[in-house]
Amino acid sequence: MTMWSDSETQIDSGFLRLDLRMAKEVQKAFIPQNPLIPGLECETFYRPAHGVSGDYYDLFQVSSGKWGIAIGDVSGKGIGAALVMVKLQASVRAQAQPSHSDPAIAMKRVNQLIYESAPIHFYASLFYAEYDPVTRTLTYVNAGQNPPIVIRCEDGRSKVFRLEPDGIPVGLFENSNYRSANFQLQAGDILVACTDGIMEMEDQEGKQWGQQRLEDMFSICDRRTPGHVVRSILREVSAFARGRAPQDDMTLIVLQVDL
To answer: How many domains does the chain have?
Structure first.
């Protein structure tokens, strides 16, 4: 029987820490840093719970001149989820570039790619939308992701619209089909999208922060920037948790249509 010495164990642990640190840096490079999207002001927040993350978001221009907006959450945690996350981002970008008439076609192909390449116990909830800066139209598919919300102040009253899921997470079944929907954005509208790490943050009694608390934050019409919205959400979640450490990755995208 081979016995490992303490020095060999320390060396292996050191290499593991180095690998994790490098993996974190590589993954960080895949995350866009508030790109400039015509007609939109953008603010994001991204925090892995354990070094590397299964969360994913992306903002990029597609070949049609529209802009792709994606946010997703790979099942599980750790290196495995992080590797699937990288595959998910690459798949979404690749399938968004052809001149599809409908993002649902891209989502169907992404589902097939994740199903074929990821281990059987991995799948991902995913919201993918294409924004047209000319018409301010958002065409989206929601595959099991927490519903992003659009906040609109109209006639002094605040309205909240949910972009509900209408499909199952990608990678669960080989031949899943998806449908897209259109949402007509207006000047001043704010789009908020986040992952489970924010929605399912727990307090000391194990209660979750949840969708309703997020929406209640926008019950009053007032002038807010995306940066202010991000800071307000993080402040509310932190106060709710009362010092409890996050157990899941946290990702948040806030976009506002220019006035």
So the answer is: 1
Q: What share of the chain is helix, strand, coil (3-state, %, to 5)?
A: 35, 30, 40
Looking at the DSSP assignment, which residues form a beta bridge with residue 149?
162, 192
- Amino acid in the structure at residue 122: F
Helix extents (H) in the chain: 6-29, 78-96, 103-117, 196-199, 210-216, 226-241
Do 170 and 176 touch, CB atoms closer than 8 A?
yes
Domain annotation covers residue 210: yes
- In this structure, are residues 193 and 148 in contact, taking their beta carbons and an 8 Å threshold? yes
The pLDDT tens digits for 54-103 are 898 999 999 778 999 999 999 877 778 888 888 999 999 999 987 667 89
Residues 217-232, buried b or exposed e (16+ Cβ, 10 A)? bbeebeebebeebbee
Q: Which amino acid is at 133?
A: P
- Answer positive or negative: Cα dihedral of 60, 62, 66, 68: negative
Write down the pLDDT at residue 28.
Answer: 66
CATH of the domain at 114: 3.60.40.10
Question: Rounded to whole angstroms, what are the CA distances from 88 to 2, 95, 105?
Answer: 40, 11, 15
CA atoms within 13 A on the CB side of 177: 1
In a domain, 52, yes or no: yes
Tens-place pLDDT, residues 227-257: 999 999 999 999 999 888 877 889 999 999 9
Length of the chain, in residues: 259
25 in a structural domain:
no
Distance CA 111, CA 211 (A): 26
Residue range(s) defining the domain that contains residue 200: 38-257
Residue 22 lies in a domain: no
Sign of CA dihedral 231, 254, 44, 238: positive
